[in-house]
Amino acid sequence: MYESLVSVVMPSYNTAGTVEESIQSVLSQSYANWELIVVDDHSADATAEIIKRTAGRDPRVRLFINERNLGAAAARNRGIHEAAGDYIAFLDSDDLWHKDKLKNQLAFMQDNGADISYTATAYIKNGIRSNYVLRAEKKLTYKNLLKGNIMSCSSVMVTRDTMRRNLFPARVFRIHEDYAAWLLIVREKGFACGLDEPLLIYRMSGNSKSSGRTASAAMNYNAYRVTGYNFFLSFLFTLRYTKHSISKRYKIKAGARDARLLRS
């Protein structure tokens, strides 16, 4: 029986402290028919050297290095063009996967005839896992996705042909490129299938490009504009998204506090 090849695309940039653990979470997958395409975006630290050392353990890991820094969207798009798999899954170089992530999600997609899917998300910060989980809707409509992005990038799996028709917008300054891509795909397909299992462990950090609320709002606004909405609707959608985002972050932090209390 043919087992579909899954191409895992991982952009990396100055993540020497986390990239090895992220790659290890792919190496540890219970589903074995995958390739890992790591695109290093001209890191200034030891990220590329760590990836080379880790890649030497398994021929399924391939490393590509950009000659100059192009941004996460361009790095992911390069990985998509290099992908040979029937499906493409995304994993950022500071996030982690449950060992059954690929196996469970691929079976879920094939059982539901889905072209795009995502999973529930767990959160970890400073080594402490929050009790809060971002749940996945089994059938996430375009209308609901417009309200806020619950499709964590590192949880998404999509058919290769669908992804190649809807690449990440790489020429827009300060944008949530993954959200823009999911909006385009879900509008095309009608919905995304959500597997409500926390198979992604998202590493919380205050150093991400979207950590500031003002910057994040601007990035959401640009995502709506790229998707085709006018100034007025993009502004209204951004206000609604910001409210959703603040509520989510409060729940994550509250869950982390609860987790620390349980440990003490």
Give an account of the 3D structure.
By secondary structure, the chain is an alpha/beta fold. It has one domain: Spore Coat Polysaccharide Biosynthesis Protein SpsA, Chain A, CATH 3.90.550.10. It has helices at 19-27, 47-55, 72-82, 101-112, 142-147, 160-165, 177-189, 213-227, 231-263; strands at 6-12, 34-40, 61-65, 87-90, 96-97, 116-125, 128-134, 139-141, 157-159, 191-203. Strand 1, helix 1 (19-27) and strand 2 form a beta-alpha-beta unit. Helix 1 runs parallel beside helix 2, helix 7 runs parallel beside helix 8 and helix 8 crosses helix 9 (231-263). The longest helix is centred in the C-terminal third of the chain and has 33 residues, at 231-263. The chain is globular, with a radius of gyration of 18 Å. The relative contact order is 0.14. The model has no long low-confidence stretch (mean pLDDT 92).
Which sheet architecture does the biggest sheet show? 10 strands, mixed
Mind telling me the CATH superfamily name? Spore Coat Polysaccharide Biosynthesis Protein SpsA, Chain A
- The CA-CA distance between the termini, in Å, is 50 Å
Shape label: globular
Task: Write the CATH architecture name.
Answer: Alpha-Beta Complex
Total number of helical segments? 9
The total beta strand count reads 10
Q: Given this structure, which CATH class is correct?
A: Alpha Beta
